[in-house]
Amino acid sequence: MAPNPTVRQRRLGTELRRLREARGLSLEDVAVRLECSDSKVSRIELGRSGVRPVDLRILLDLYEVADERERDSLLTLAREAKKRGWWHSYSSILPSSYAELLSLEAESSGMRGFELSLIPGLLQTPDYVRAVIAAVRDDMPAEQVDMLVRVRQERQAVLDRVGAQGEATFRLSVVISESVLRTVVGGRETMRAQLEHLMAAAARPHVRLQILPFAAGAHPAIEGSFAIIGFPELSDLDVVVLDTHTSSLYLEEPEHVSVYERMFEDIRAAALSYGESLSMIELTAKELS
């Protein structure tokens, strides 16, 4: 599995770029000091490559960072960026793009998104996951399927994360197309259980769920699903995730993220209210009985 940037690594890279630009230095200037290529400096600033403590100290000297607390904070960030997450134990089966998603989710403060064809991954039951895998990869060995189901279950632990005062530290706000409810995945029993699980999840105060009905007609996200992953620190840029059949695309430029933020708000405004959405889910579940 190819290495993927952690949130800490992205945060460190963003801060180093800010410091460099504040000093009026170019990538080439920094590369000369580090005795490396300017492309390596660029990878560090993009969070695609780590930086050794010795090189980081050189950079902090070059950028004239004298405050010891700031220096220590950035050095700690560099060390923590090397820590491996729980998903690395599944590295033999996880595509790098999925590992990157798990890395981002692990340190995020929430997710907003729209689902056109499937129940959101954070709300899927094990049987639903198995049915989806069977539909997409019917040749996958049973052992690998079991591992992917475990990954999905461990991923969902972010919904149970709490802070020092017992408050939820991850919030999920998602709009689901009515077509997701109407598509029977894994048979009637599996789908009914999935819808019941969806209703139970929606009852949690940090989960906001709405349904976009067929009656809404054409909408801004008619071309596909998307998710916006948010972070607690202002220096951490939100990330838009677009899934394809074989990989995922990550958008981090603010102008791109803002497009999807507006799209999400438009879709949420067109969706049913929370109460109406739960009623539709409950009715659909009863129809499967």
Automatic annotation (TrEMBL):
<dbReference type="InterPro" id="IPR001387">
    <property type="entry name" value="Cro/C1-type_HTH"/>
</dbReference>
<dbReference type="Pfam" id="PF13560">
    <property type="entry name" value="HTH_31"/>
</dbReference>
<protein>
    <recommendedName>
        <fullName>HTH cro/C1-type domain-containing protein</fullName>
    </recommendedName>
</protein>
<dbReference type="Pfam" id="PF19054">
    <property type="entry name" value="DUF5753"/>
</dbReference>
<dbReference type="GO" id="GO:0003677">
    <property type="term" value="F:DNA binding"/>
</dbReference>
<feature type="domain" description="HTH cro/C1-type">
    <location>
        <begin position="16"/>
        <end position="69"/>
    </location>
</feature>
<dbReference type="InterPro" id="IPR043917">
    <property type="entry name" value="DUF5753"/>
</dbReference>
<dbReference type="InterPro" id="IPR010982">
    <property type="entry name" value="Lambda_DNA-bd_dom_sf"/>
</dbReference>
